[in-house]
Amino acid sequence: MVSDVKNILEKIDSNGIWAVKLLKIRSSNRTGLSYTAREIKFSPNEIVKNHIDELVERYVGRDNAIGKYTTVVEYDGTADASTIYTLDSDNSLIKEANTLLMDALTDADQESDPTKEKYSAYVIVGTVEEKRIYLFSMQSPFVNMKRKHFWDNSTFKRFTKPVLSLRLNIDVLIYDNKVYMFSMAGENLFNMDRAYKAVCSDRIIQIEQSGILLEGGLFENVASSGSNPRKFVSFNEHYLDLLKDKHIRKKIGKKFDIPMREGKFDTEQDGAADKIVKLLCKKGMLDPFDDIPVEVSGSKKWS
Predict the structure, then answer these.
(1) What are the residues whose beta carbons fall under 8 Å from the beta carbon of 72, sequence distance 6 or more?
(2) Strands 178-181 and 155-158
(3) Are 196 and 77 a contacting pair, CB within 8 Å?
(4) Alpha carbons 125 and 17: distance in angstroms, whole number
(5) CA pair distance 99, 120, nearest whole angstrom
(6) What confidence tens digit (pLDDT) does each residue in 115-163 have?
(7) Cα–Cα–Cα angle for 16, 17, 21, nearest 5°?
(8) Which of 22, 28, 141, 166 is 20 to 30 Å from the Cα of 281, by its Cα?
(9) Alpha helical stretches, state H, the chain
């Protein structure tokens, strides 16, 4: 519930021990995913304390930014701006990345020149009720001042030194082995694009080997393209098991207008593969009034 996240933020005490760490995220097919962190200091020390106070005030105080969110749900590949998506830190989608991230933050460098690197994010690290809390901002912390000038001694002068900005936003919060994504920028923190493409690949093999499709169709090409890979995060294996029954398959094919031949789904026909992806990934339902197939962002049981 959103109230649970709000409760965490309300417990933040800026008088505790806090650290700010710049974060570089690198990903390549050759070397994989890696993180580099650089802990930074401020003068006066009250800068970090005051920023945390402002951040808490923005989200659960006067501005009530947390109020824009209506629900907290398990990450399912959808992208609803009014939803906070959550995952356990050992979820297979992020487990490896999270381990690398925590190791990098623990071993953060304190010596190198932070202005010589290109950092893509920063994190504020502290403690709430004796548990580590991480507040990530997934934006470059350094501001481009190329065309900006400051007033000094009766004239405007050009900025010659790097300027760092602490922003009043939270993209990802990690607390008590739970990850909360306030924005879809959180996917970038864990390179989730790579993770759900791997999930998609495994599920495609599983579906093709299930016997529900005619051989030689276009299912793999369609299922692995566009926005389809992220849909497989919410893949329902029970649905696939049900479709192995030819009678159920025939019934579902008729209800959702999925072309069939020889008792199996014919993915050579236009739109067939897309419909199967939506159906298996809980993105296809029947309109309760018109009894026609419709695409939905997701589904869950009524409480």
Answers:
(1) 1, 2, 4, 5, 83, 84, 85, 86, 180
(2) unpaired
(3) yes
(4) 9
(5) 19
(6) 888 899 999 999 999 999 999 999 888 877 778 888 888 898 887 788 8
(7) 135
(8) 28
(9) 2-10, 46-60, 95-106, 186-189, 192-208, 219-223, 228-231, 237-243, 246-255, 272-280
